[in-house]
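1st attempt posting a full record on here, be nice pls
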Amino acid sequence: MGLFDSLFGGMESSRKLTPQESFAGILLAASACDGHISDEEAANLTTAVGRMKLFQRVNEKEFSSVMDKLLGILKKKGPDALIEGCCESLPKELVNAAFANACNIVLADGVVDAEEKSFIEKLRSTLAVDENIAKTIAQVMVIKNKG
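the predicted structure (as C-alpha cells):
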C-alpha cells in the first residue's frame, strides 16, 4: 500500500453513499460487469432512474456528478467493490427494485455471458435477495427483454 493509499483510501470508504448513489451504482456495476457498457445498458440505466421517485429531485447536473463519482469508484476498484459499497448503503425497501433493474440492464443487449451471470448471483447474494424472488424477477426480465 502506497503513502497516498493509506492517507486517502480510508476517507473514500468511510463516507457512506446516499440512497441515490447506491441505487445508481448498482445499475452502473450491472452495466459494466462484462467489461463494457453497451448503449442499451446505458439507456436502461438512465430510463430506470428517471422514472423513480428516489431521483425526482435530482437535476441533470447533480445526476452527472453522481455518475462521475460512481464511474471513478468503478474504474479504481471494479464492479464488485462498487456493489459492495452500494449494498451497504441501499435502503432495504429498494433491494428488490435494485436487483430487478440490474437484471433488466444485464439482459438489455440480449446476451448474458458468464461474467454477467456471476455478477447477478453475487449481487443477489450481497443484497440478500431471496432465491425464489430472484428467480421470479429474472424470469420476468427475460420475458420483458425478449424480441
